[in-house]
# Entry
Amino acid sequence: MILITGAAGFIGSNFVLDWLAQSDEPVINLDDLTYAGNLENLAAVDGDSRHIFVKGSIGDFDLVAKLLAEHQPRAVVNFAAESHVDRSIHGPEDFIQTNIVGTFHLLEAVRAYWGGLESEAKSGFRFLHVSTDEVYGSLAKDDPAFTENHRYEPNSPYSASKAASDHLVRAYHHTYGLPVLTTNCSNNYGPFHFPEKLIPLVIHNALAGKPLPIYGDGQQIRDWLYVKDHCSAIRRVLEAGRVGEVYNIGGWNEKPNLDVVHTLCSILDDLSPRADGKPYVEQITYVTDRPGHDRRYAIDATKIERELGWKPAETFETGIRKTVQWYLDNQAWVANVTSGAYKNWVGKQYGDKNA
Ligand code: NAD
Ligand code: TYD
# Structure
């Protein structure tokens, strides 16, 4: 049994679906169902006894302690976080509370549980913390990609809060011997991506006939990884990563934002042409840049490949086409997210105060 936090979100739900497709080991999914948590992502495992959903926060020490005592997991994988840079700029408080304070309470509960395990269970236990390349800050055009030794230089409240959580995880290993693993991954894309992030937002706005907003000059570079490849890397690190180590995860797919948007438009021209026959690029609109916008991220994924033999299965070209097709095939999911209807389930299940 493993405990996965934040598994009603984008990456966590993909992780659970892939995990249960490959293994019979049950998962407990602890998720507070913020705006980003959507149990419709997990409809495919609805009623599956291997998936136990618990609504609650990683910051709730008593709840986490109770779940650990009851289910005795062999590992905790921590996805739970506030994850959107633009939201962190408008309101950093939730990022501090969840990403820093929440991770601290989670670590405290895990440390107490782990300290009480018998020797074999204790040495086999793992706490895997899922983090981001954004903690390393921004690269200039010709800088080498981020290795695990790159200095931390977070620039947004989001990346600063993730950096703080990485440091806490590191300290719990160094000070208390907690068997931790940390992964720092580049930008993900794929199914169940909330349409506030660039790729799903562009697909949604294109199909809705709305503007495709490009921040600044659109020449900022991100290093894109298909979400299923991120999930396979996390499984591999959990299985064979060296305790206390950090693994950078990326797909060697650096692209300027404008190129990504052009690619999305041309796939949509092909798979779902506009009624007026015009190209979707006509909807591109330049808007005011994000304050403090990081210019370039790039991951050097040599270590995880060399030590653990992990490589991504998708190229950007194959992954992005699958992603566009997924959004076209799952318009009801998108409609429920954009209308807010996905929250009705929470309202029904937990009362209106949580809806
Ligand atoms: P997401 O915003 O889609 O999902 C986050 C999930 O965490 C949601 O289900 C939300 O309800 C839950 N959550 C929030 N606060 C919580 C709390 N206090 N207790 C329990 N659950 C809580 O995020 P994502 O894109 O799936 O990212 C998952 C993790 O991966 C994050 O830690 C993020 O920093 C990291 N990451 C994301 C990317 C990316 O491109 N999306 C890249 C690298 C790393
Ligand atoms: P985003 O998906 O928010 O991820 P992150 O900020 O974590 O990298 O944004 C990806 C890139 O796309 C980033 O450089 C900001 C840019 N962007 C736009 O140009 N327009 C948009 O509407 C959004 C949401 C992002």
Summary: The chain has a mean pLDDT of 96. The CA atoms of residues 216 and 289 lie 4 Å apart.
